[in-house]
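1st attempt posting a full record on here, be nice pls
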Amino acid sequence: MQDSHKKIETGVKVVLVLIWLTFIGVVFHFRDRITVETLMAYQPKNLFLAAVGMVGVFALKGVSIVIYSGLLYTVTGLLFPAPLAILVNILGSFAMVSIPYWIGRKTGSGTAQYIVAKYPKAAAIQKLRSDNDFLFGFLVRIVGHLPSDIVSVYMGAIGMPYGAYIAGSMMGMLPHMITFPLIGGSIRDWHAPVFWIALCG
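the predicted structure (as C-alpha cells):
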C-alpha cells in the first residue's frame, strides 16, 4: 500500500514538473512577443473581462521566469483606473505567488536542493529565516535577490506554512502593486505629480 502511495505521489510530482516546464517553454518561445503593446492588444474592452484576463496572465507568470512582474503591474495602470488596477494587481499577485508555491510544496525537498544548486542566492535567503515565517517571507520579497517564481517554489519546497508565506509575500510586494500601476497610468503625462510621486516611491 505504501509503495502504491509513493508511486502515485511520484507521478503527481512528475506531472506538476512537466506542466511547469511546458509553461516555461511556451512563454520562453514567445518571449519576444510579450510586450506592453501585445498584452494590451489581447485585452477585451469589457473591464470585468479584461480584469479576469489580466489575473490569468499573472497566473501564467507564476509558472515562468521570463515575464517581469513589474511589466504586468505597469500594464494594469495603462488598462484600468488606478483603484481597479491596484485591485487587479493584488488578485493577480495572489495567484502568481500561490501557484508556484504549491508546485514546490508538492515536489518537495528535492526541488529545494535543485534551486539551491542552480541559484546559490537561494541558500543566502534561507539565512534570513527566523522563527517568524511572516517576517521571513516579507524580507525575501523586499530584498528581491531572486525571480519571484523561484522564491515561491523554493518556499513551498522547504515547507514554509502557506498562511505566513502568502501574508509576508503580499505585504512585501504591496509597494510595487501600488506604485507601478500609478506610473503606468500617468506615463503619458510624465509632468503629472502622481507620476513622480509613484516613481520616487
